[in-house]
Design a protein that fits this description.
By secondary structure, this protein is an alpha+beta fold. It has two helices and six strands; from the N terminus they run H-E-E-E-H-E-E-E. The protein starts with 7 loop residues before the first helix and ends in a 6-residue tail after the last strand.
């Protein structure tokens, strides 16, 4: 979002004026739906980009093992045999945190 141009306090204030409070929200401006997370601090996270990043990483190559479990925004995802987790942007998220498992190595 616009967190690069404005302070976190300004982002929270502007978002509040248009009815957006901390948590997940989606915007569809004609180019498809995009999901963001507005944190209490005023920082915004592009959820779609974060999910793509998490799905693209081969977790086995960086020290995790098949079956290790991540909690992404409140949903549980296990590393599959190819080394990936498969988070969907369509999932119903219940938390604003990402919890990583302990590394195997």
């Amino acid at each position: 979002m616009c967190g690069y141009l404005y302070s976190n306090e300004e982002v929270l204030s502007v978002c509040e004026k248009v009815g957006i409070s901390p948590g997940f929200f989606s915007i569809d401006a004609g180019a498809g739906k995009h999901t963001y997370l507005l944190q209490e601090s005023g920082k915004t996270i592009n959820v779609d980009a974060k999910i793509k990043q998490l799905n693209d990483i081969n977790w086995i190559e960086i020290g995790y093992k098949e079956g290790d479990t991540f909690f992404v925004y409140g949903k549980e995802y296990a590393i599959d045999s190819s080394g990936h987790i498969n988070v969907s942007a369509e999932d119903e998220f219940t938390s604003t945190e990402i919890k990583y498992p302990s590394r195997s190595i």
